Each structure stands twice: as structure tokens, then as C-alpha cells.
Amino acid sequence: MFEVIFQLMGKITNYLRDIFFVFLLLVCQAQSEESGTPKDLALMAKKIRPSIVVITQEGREGKVVGTGTGFVISEDGLIATCSHVIGESRLIKVRFDNGNEYKVEKIFASDRKLDLAILKINEAGLKPLQLETEKSSEQGMEVIAMGNPQGLEFSIVRGIISGIREIENQSLIQIAIPIEPGNSGGPLMNDKGKVCGIINMKSAITENLGFAIPVNNLIKIKDTPNPVTMDNWLTIGKLNPAVWQIKMGADWRQRAGRISVKERGAGFGGRSICIYQKQTPDVPYEIKVDVKLSDESGAAGLIFESDENDHHYGFYPSGGKLRLTRFEGPDVLSWSILNETESENYDSGEWNSIRVRVEEESILTFLNGKKLFEIKDKKLRNGKVGFAKFRDTEAIFKNFKLGKNLAPREPSIEIIQEINSGISQILENKNDSTAIKNLQKKLPTSQRLIKKKIKDLENSINSLKLLNEKFHREDITKKILQELQKDPECDLALCALLLAKYDNPEIDIDSYHNEIVRMGDDLLTKVEENTDIQTKISLISKYLFEDNGYHGSRTDYYNQSNSYINEVLDDREGIPITLSIIYIELAKRLGIEVKGLGLPGHFVVFYNKNDERQMIDPFENGKILTKADADAIVKDYDRTKTSEDYEAADNKSIIQRMLYNLKGISIDNKQYKDAINYVDLLISIDPNDAQERLSRSILFIQLNQNEDAKVDLEWLLKMKPDGIRIERIEELYKRLN
Predict the structure, then answer these.
(1) Residue 581 to residue 215: CA distance in whole angstroms
(2) Nearest Cα to 196, choosing from 183, 213, 215?
(3) Which pTM does this prediction carry?
(4) DSSP class per residue in 600-613
(5) Residue-wise over 436-445: b if at least 16 C-beta within 10 A, else e?
(6) What pLDDT digit, counting tens, does each position of 17-43 carry?
(7) What is the phi/psi pair of residue 661, to 5°?
(8) Which listed residue, 186, 470, 476, 557, has the most CB atoms within 10 A of its CB?
(9) Which string of DSSP letters, residue by residue, matches 243-254?
(10) How far is CA 101 from CA 93, 121, 191, 673, in A?
């Protein structure tokens, strides 16, 4: 079900985007007709949109620090913009309206004085804008501009040329157009859609005044390029090529004694290598580095005996395991995994020290000072060492060392015991000066053991937090099940509040429950003794959507807050099912039996009148739905059914549907642990739900919790439920063994 919902979400997002763009075009068209601009302005705007790009530059920390606009001026990938948009020595990317993103291959031409730059990307078949070569810009000429002001990408605005000004010995076009950050580098076009200028700055005096660089300056630098390759452009964090050589792409940087890598490599599996250029010692020798991965599903670590191309060994964490691989070519068919093992000594998500000792006929591996395994292999020798990364991994390396013997020097047991004793004394009395002085005498061993103690305490705290969370979720699960068992007398509002408390233990359920009661009491004061049902329904809609401002969440639909009834009450914003719950509860307090109706992709409510459903859409401010309206919603998903094929939703199915929403949002955000919590509750509500058993097993596999996954797969193999392809389950189970 949720996949269908997300497919619809994508359609709706694209539809809204297109509607918004059409709206902008219609506004421009209406304005143009009033002022005499050609009526095909809307078509012109639609035509130029594929030629406009968002340009971003990264700062020293690897984060986006600047955004501007550019536009295509040649089919083979030339992009025009302002020089200040691309900064100095920054990594630059361009993104088109269709979502395609490219790294800049080189700075084709630039002129700081003119504030112009032309970028080159590796793409062909682009749609360039035409440059005006004949008609000069004149005062009073009507123009349009397209850019990305304040992050509002691909926005269009119309204005006029108010004059030609000389500023710092440079001619600039003065335009009566509101210019904002992000517009810089965008095209200024005449009524024929030809570029007559490049927007470069706004007036400091008034909001609706800006300046553009005449297009003849752009033509000048295009005809006399001064190209700079990105290797020469990127100086911030650039690795010294005399020390490190990068092969197969990716973005390798250095800062504060650390080397970082991100972006997918050009090699098979996203492989990229960074090779240390200094001489490797004769065997035996050792290499060591501390590495930290942003995502444990990725892989990054040491390489050695490299021919500076496709042949080398690699020792690295991958998927929470430690792997030793021999690479003898460009793809997986020439790769051999020599060993792969799990280790309780591996610290997931933290820094881990990996070390390799290369001997004449064998390779020894170490993790955090402890030996992992030894492999007899001498196929590759006399090569260089370095780093490798795979897939979309982002990784950081520090404390790289190459030498004959890098084994850490361990202090004696007596010294370790003495230091640990001192640490314990300080934990009991932080002002114990004697213990502090004794620890200071034994640096850096004291520091290393203090860090270990901190880690141990953090692990203990985390274990207690997880235990406390487990107790909390089990308690809330029990309360939800007890309440659902009372159906049809179940308190739906209480169940929804308990579901919110499942994720947020701090929620005061009584306070929010009393708020719903208060709202019901408030409504009762507006109802006269003989008020009919239809009038009461109208009063509920007016009370919620007009008097109190409750509304459907349109711009933030998939925010989890919309599924927490307490936050819907706080913000008066929700999705169909949470707004429907409030509607049902208020109707109950007025003595009306309003029920939920779970149409595909949309939840509504209804009451019966003369044995016919009277449907209401709380998401649409209490809009009355005809049968044709409801059938149309159904037809978008299943043309063989009508709304009458859907039964009223009981309280159990309403809570389940809320959980499906929360689970789906978590999966979409790759928050698999949260998703498992929701599946746990779904299975507690319905222990025979085979689809959720399968879902949970797959989530466990995503988290490399294969033993937990096998428990659910074994249940499926034993029960053989309908709708589950048992042969596929058997295959999956075998892969985990």
C-alpha cells in the first residue's frame, strides 16, 4: 500500500510543481498583455527553463556556501554565470531543472574585472540560449530574467531596462527588477528570448533595482578563452600530488591533518584510490590508519602492493565487517575476497584503527590493536600503499603511518592497573589532586585509558537508554492493545495519543485528552436541543476549520508531526487520518456516529443518512464528498472498484494505518531502526501479519542483524501464509546462513 502512496506522492509533487510554474507563466503572460509585451512570453519562459541551471560552490568544510544561477550557451556543455558565483578555488556543481547534476570539468573562461565566468561540464545535446549580437540594450526595453532567488529555484520575473550606467569604468545595464541572492549569473533576455545581459548585483538603495553585465562582454571572453582545469582550480584542501596521487575520481581533500573522501569513484562499484607516493619499505613492513565511515553500509580503508591502477590488496571495514580483498582488474570478476570477518572490537560509527603487516608470503591484519587474522598470499608484491573507497561512502582518515613495525607499545599490566585506579578515584572525587598528578606523570597512556573509560561509560549509558526505551515501548504497546480490545467501545483518541507517546515519552496524555473533551464541550454549547444531524455536522466543520483554523498539511505532508495527534492539536495542521480522528471524536461528543473510511491514498469520514453514506473530507476543510467524488479517488488506484467496496474502518485498522504512514516515512528517510519499532507494534496488534513479518526481516537485514531477520523468516517458513512466495523466503534464508 505504501509504495502506491509514495508513487502518488511523486505524481502530486510533479503536478504541483507544474501547476506552480504554469501559474508563474500565466502571471507573466497577463502582465505582458497589459503592457504590450508579446503574448508568447509564457511559451518563451517554458522554452528557456531547460537551459537554466543552479550553481553551487562548496566551502572549506565541504558544505554548500553559495548558490547562484547560470545558463547554457553551447550544446556541448558551456555554462555562463558570474565570476563571484563560483568563488575562488571551490568545488562547483551545476544542476538542471530535471534534477541532473554535474561537476564542473573546467573553468573555460573567466574575467574577475568583468565578473564573468564560463564553465564546462561533460555533457552534450544541451539547449543553449541565443546571445543577442545585433540589437543593443536600450532604455525602456522590456526584459525578463530567470534565476534562483533566496533558494526559490527557476523563478521568473519581468521588468524594464531603466538605463545604462558606468560603474567603476564598466558599462552596466540598470534594470527595474527585484534582484535577490541566487539571481546572480542568470540571463537577462529581450522579448525574443535572446540574452542581452547577465544579472550580477542588486541595488543597495532600493529593492526593485538591479544591474546586469552587457552580453557583448560574455561573447568576448567566450571567443578568447583562458581555460583552467579543475585540478589546478581546486586548491582548498587539495592533496599534494608529490605525496598523494588520486586515481578513478571521487573528491579527496585534506584538512587539519586528516584526509577525507566523498562522491562516488569512477571505478567499478564506485571504487577510487589515493596512492601514497613515497617509497614503500621492503617486506616485512606495516601500514596503519584510523578510519571513520559516515555510513557503515559503505567501505573504505587501506590498500597496499598497488600498481597505482587496478591491482592491489585492500583491507577495510564494509557493512560492519572487516574484509581483505585482492583486486586484479577493473571489476568484480577479477576481485577475490581473501577473508571477511566480524569483530566485537569494531566500533561502529566511530574511529577504528586498522593495520596491516605485509610479509614475504603472508598478510596479517589488526583492528584497534588486536590481531584479526593471517592469510597466506604472495601474489602481489613490490607495489605502493594508500587508501581506497567504494560505493557512495564518505570517509575520513587520520594518523596514517608506514614503517617496519607499527605495533602499539603496550604499558605493563601494573601501570594499567595503577592508571585505572587513579581514574576511579577521580570519578569518586574530581578534586583528588594526588590522583590527578599521578595520571599526568604517565601521559599519553593515561589519556588513552581515560578515553577508553569514557567509551565504556558511554556504552553503559547507551545500554541503559536502550533498556529504558524498550520498557517504555513495551508498556505503551500493552496499553494500546488493552484499549483496542474494548472495540467498539475503544477510545480512539486515547489510542492515537498513546501512539504519539510511543515515540515521545514526555507527552502528557491527560492534558491532550482533556483538550479534545473541552472542544466537545465547547461545541455542545452551540447545539440546540432539536438540532438535526446535518446541522451538527456543519457546526463541527465550521468549528474546526473556520473558527479554530485546523487545516490539511499541504507543504509538509510527510512530516511525522502530522501523524502525532498531540502535535496536530498543537499546530492545528494534520493529514487526512489525524484530522479525521479529531472529527470522529467531536462527533461522538455530539451524539453522532461518524466513522472512518480508508479509501486508497486518502482517508475520509462518513455518517449514514437514510442508509446512504454522507461523506466528509476533513483534509479539505470538511468538504462534502459525493459518491462520484469518492469513486474518482478509488479509480485513481483501482478501476475495478468503487467507494462502496470499502468498509468502515474500525479503530484497530485506523491505528494500523497510522503506523503504516510512520513506518513508510522512516524507511524513506532510511531510519530503519525507527521503522522496526513501528513494525514491532504492528505485529503486536496482529501477530499473524505475514507482510509485516517479511518487512521486519528485510529491515533487520538492512541493519546487518541477520540473526533477528532469520527469526521472522523461520516463522514464515513454518506458517506458509497466503500471499507469500515461500521459495523466495527459502532463498533469502539460505543467503543468511
Answers:
(1) 60
(2) 215
(3) 0.55
(4) TTEEEEEEEETTEE
(5) eebbeebeeb
(6) 333 333 333 333 333 333 334 445 567
(7) -60, -50
(8) 186
(9) TEEEESEEEEEE
(10) 7, 10, 29, 31
